[in-house]
Amino acid sequence: MVSWRRRDPSRTPARRPGEAPSDLRVHLPLLWPAGPDGPVDEAALRALAREYARTGRGVEDLLADLDRLCSVLGIGASSRMIETSSIAWADAFLDTVGGVAPQPGESLAEVERRLQGGAAADVRLLVVSWAGRPDPSELGRVVTEIRRIFPGAAVAEQAGAARVLAAVDRDDAGPRTDRLRARCAELGRTTPPTVEVLQGPTDAQPMRALFRDAG
């Protein structure tokens, strides 16, 4: 089992990993899957940076939060981390303002990654689904609302299955889901979609069906 002790407690304020802000804590095992003594997962770092850009958070916020995560582990943010995350943030920001949508498979992989990570117990799967075929713009509006109501969530649009999936923080899942249902009812041009929160291992049959390629 991976140990999450700090490398050098004298280099950081006296706080434990469990005391990190809840919206950041989920990223610890994703960024350092081998533990604090292991290398940072650059794919997870780039995914985090892209999510900040797509949800309107500045690169200064990203770097400040990375510093906070590193301080919890008793390490410093390396120049490589700063460069990698800054470039990923800038690329995603340019795509966002230029109207270039992220690749659906990449977003879906990030949702599944969050659910399978070491902090999976703190993550829930949010599923928004339509009985019929909604207007494509309606899916886009729901994605926007999810990112607004659940800051930091990983969101994937499955247009072929008339569905949106999101990995959200467990503590946010209850109170914010009702807000999302209300917004979906206001946004929809037809019958509002169903909004539900699931939990459980991603290798269970219901989960596998959701993550199956929907075309």
From TrEMBL:
Annotated region described as Disordered, given as residue ranges: 1-21
Superkingdom of the source species: Bacteria
Protein name: Uncharacterized protein
Source organism of the structure: Nocardioides lianchengensis
